[in-house]
Predict the 3D structure of the following.
Amino acid sequence: MAGHDFRSGCSIARTLEIVGDKWTLLIVRDLMWHGKQTFQALEESAEGVPTNILSERLKRLVKWRLVRREAYQKHPVRYAYHLTEAGKSLEPVLLQIMNWGHEHLGGGRYDPTTGKTLKAAR
Amino acid sequence: MAGHDFRSGCSIARTLEIVGDKWTLLIVRDLMWHGKQTFQALEESAEGVPTNILSERLKRLVKWRLVRREAYQKHPVRYAYHLTEAGKSLEPVLLQIMNWGHEHLGGGRYDPTTGKTLKAAR
DNA sequence: GCCCGCCACTTGCAAAAAACAAGTGACCTT
DNA sequence: AAGGTCACTTGTTTTTTGCAAGTGGCGGGC
């Protein structure tokens, strides 16, 4: 992005400046797969993100154009968040992280084609 | 892992509890691709990780068995850090993150087969 | 034996970020 | 007019980070 100083030229380091924390990719996950597109729906995610963090992360995602924020109605105005193409292109990243967590930490595995989550052992 | 309380059953959430920060995956990157295996070599990484953070992250990686720490010599004792199989299996995650950062943030792209980094535009 | 340096950290402290609870304001329903 | 919903914001405490400096084991040179 124009005007931003990355800490290095490494693509991994750059990506982590945007999504390198405990929450951002969970928000992307919910937007991508779980049909959550309002602030409140995202707030009710399984992990219980604090609202100030959610607010700040959404702003960052919008700033980096991974997410668009738009009013889907007036009177009263209500906002919906949607992934942009750049945001949607994080899906392979999410899938790899999910696969690793499934293999090594016993977490569930979501199948985007069926929309079902298969629970694992542990 | 036995005894650990994950915040949710989601594989992504679980994985982010271990590697969800700005530094951990950079350490894994250096161990995986850049032949850095001592504390000092890792400390001299491109991004300049603070030593207390490096120390703490290495401990976490060892605790989760993604990394092994072993003395490679006595007199004086010197330690080397190596990825375990679980650690090495993060490579696809790293590659996806790198690809995304290359496409969207103009970072370089490393080719593990040749060991060369191709620099991008921006 | 004593000083110097290297390596692998640890410690102390200030600054930033995260967590938690509560509050705000626009608008709508009753 | 009172109460509710949604989308946040604000205030406060706790935790984490970043930075600089210090520590301790060991070896080598003099």
